[in-house]
Amino acid sequence: MTDNEHHQNFIEQMDEIENNRNLFPEKFIQHKQNLEEHPLIKQMDQWENDSIIKIKQTAEEYTKWKEFGINIAERNELNQLQSPSSILIDDDDDDKTIYIVDSQNDRIIK
Predict the structure, then answer these.
(1) β strands within 2-110, DSSP E
(2) Is residue 97 part of a domain?
(3) What domain count does the chain have?
(4) Is residue 1 part of a domain?
(5) Is 98 among the domain residues?
(6) CB count in 10 Å sphere of residue 84
(7) pLDDT tens digit string along 38-72?
(8) What is the CA radius of gyration of the chain?
(9) What per-residue confidence (pLDDT) applies to 48?
(10) Which DSSP category does 78 fall into?
């Protein structure tokens, strides 16, 4: 191959690269749009929506009994919390007992 042929071949390759570069944004957008319609993406969207519904239902279920709660830390020194660090809700029984770890007072309040 002569120098001129090498040069011509190089120019053609560069033109092809430039054309591909110019077409890339359009192809990228097309692929992105096609992905949004892909069955797996649709299934993932449905799973996400189902999960949100389940989380909302669970949150509603576990906050229903809150309205009947009583204030255990009001004006009585023995029942005041100094530094609460943990909470446990025992829902094994009907009255849903709450345990609070009061670190500063070295105690657990039921």
Answers:
(1) 84-90, 97-102, 107-109
(2) yes
(3) 1
(4) no
(5) yes
(6) 14
(7) 888 889 999 999 999 999 988 887 766 555 555 55
(8) 33
(9) 94
(10) G
In a domain, 92, yes or no: yes
Q: Is 30 exposed, middle or buried (0-12, 13-18, 19+ CB in 10 A)?
A: exposed
First-to-final CA distance of the chain: 91
CB 98 within 8 A of CB 108: no
- Domain residues for the domain of 108 are 70-110
Q: How far apart are CA 56 and CA 64, in angstroms?
A: 12
**Lookup result for tokens 């509603």:** 60
37 vs 20, which has greater pLDDT? 20
Nearest to 102 by CA among 87, 73, 81: 81
Type and span of the H or E element at 71:
none
Tokens of 20: 């591909």
pTM of the model: 0.34
Rounded Cα distance, 39 and 21, in Å? 29
